[in-house]
Known about the structure:
This protein is mainly alpha-helical. The protein contains five helices and no strands. It has helices at residues 3-25, 27-37, 47-75, 79-101, 105-124. 28% of the residues are buried. The mean pLDDT is 95.
Amino acid sequence: MNAFALILLAFLAITFLQSGYDKIADWNGNVSWLKGHFSQTFLKNQVPFALLTVLALEIVAGVLAIMGIAENIMSGATIMGNYACVVSCVTLLMLLFGQRIAKDYDGARTIVIYLIPALIGVYWL
């Protein structure tokens, strides 16, 4: 059992499953806000599809993180945890891209705070 892996994967599971839940619980509110956020970009007509894509990746990342926790506790392996970190990085890069396109540089900076631990996980797991 690797305490670093367990803590990192718990962080990713909490982050992405809560974010996914929020998107599901307030789908219309999220779509409405994001349409305004991207209204001056080439993504303005792609908001529902983009949000669904991010939602799917967040759920996958969160589930993989939980699977990684279970795998690490049971066998000490980190394969699922590594997959969770990779999917998390892909998801965060998509979010970062969107924030940069929308010229929301503070939002982009915030995403980097989440990207750093995910990248460390890719490296160490």
